[in-house]
């Protein structure tokens, strides 16, 4: 497809239509800008979806860890003699939160790579300008950090290690 707005003499230095351009060149330029902005909106929507996954997995990890620690302290105090089932339930919630986070990270990464590839193709074909940055997703960075914290919580629960233990080894 020919780059309509880049061939007109009434365009600015970047090849974009301006007030002196013919109306069809202005229309094409505005359409390209709207399409470019729609990529940014789609990227932000994907970040919001990952934020939802983070919120849910954080709730599962936090609640599971709390249940595990609560029944662990009751068992250590001698109040409960068998706290295996509630502790296993707490561990299961933490593992469910971690699995959900891993799936969310994988989905987000695949979606963003495909979106970037499509955007690059459209820029190469001259359909959109592609001048705006396509930054790294800080939501993805946060999700990976939360995943590491969740894995640390599981290690703490299963192997009785970490700062959340009383040091008695019981």
UniProtKB/TrEMBL annotation:
Q: What keywords sit in the KW lines?
A: Membrane, Transmembrane, Transmembrane helix
Chain ranges passing through the membrane: 50-71, 91-113, 134-159
Chief localization: membrane
Among the entry's GO cellular component annotations, what is one?
Answer: endomembrane system
Membrane association type: Multi-pass membrane protein
Query: InterPro entries of this UniProt entry?
Result: DUF202
Question: What protein name applies here?
Answer: Putative membrane protein
């Amino acid at each position: 497809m020919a780059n309509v707005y880049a061939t007109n003499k009434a365009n600015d230095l970047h090849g974009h239509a301006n007030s002196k351009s013919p109306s069809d060149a202005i229309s094409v330029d505005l359409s390209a800008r709207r399409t470019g902005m729609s990529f940014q909106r789609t990227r932000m929507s994907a970040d919001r979806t990952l934020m939802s996954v983070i919120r849910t997995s954080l709730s599962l990890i936090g609640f599971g860890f709390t249940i595990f620690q609560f029944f662990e302290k009751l068992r250590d105090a001698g109040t409960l003699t068998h706290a295996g089932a509630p502790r296993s339930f707490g561990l299961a919630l933490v593992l469910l939160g971690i699995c959900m986070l891993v799936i969310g990270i994988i989905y987000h990464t695949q979606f963003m790579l495909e979106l970037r590839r499509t955007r690059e193709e459209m820029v190469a074909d001259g359909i959109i300008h592609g001048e705006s940055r396509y930054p790294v997703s800080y939501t993805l960075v946060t999700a990976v950090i939360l995943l590491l914290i969740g894995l640390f919580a599981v290690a703490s629960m299963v192997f009785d290690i970490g700062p959340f233990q009383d040091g008695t080894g019981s």
